[in-house]
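Researcher: Next entry in the queue.
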Amino acid sequence: MSALATVINLIRNEEAPDQQYDTLKAVWTEHLSKGGKTRIGYVAPPVIFNALALVQSKYSAQLEDPDEVRLQKKKRKKIFQFIYNVLGNFSAIRPYEGYSDIFPGRPHDIVS
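Model: Structure for this entry, 112 residues:
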C-alpha cells in the first residue's frame, strides 16, 4: 500500500492547479474511497497532505485584485471541503482501534 501512497504523492500539476485538484478528487471518489478499510487507512493521509500542499503552494498568495481574491478563497474552500470529506471517511474506519490489544494497560498503570 505504500506504493499507492507514493503514486498519490506524484499527482501534481504546476501549470494547472485546478486540474490537480480535479484529478485528486476523481481518484479519491471513484477508486480510493471504495477500496475498503485497509486501503482508506493507507491512502487517506497522502490524499489529505497532497490537498494541503496544493492549498499552501498555489492558493495562499496575497493578491491585489478583489475578483481574484474572491476566486482564490472559493477554491480554498472547495479544497478544504474535500479534505473534510476525506477525513470523515478516514475517521469512520477507526484506524487506531486495534492498538488497545498491543498496549492493554492504561498509561497510569505503567510503572517506570
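Model: Residues 66-92 form the longest helix (27 residues).
Researcher: Noted, moving on.
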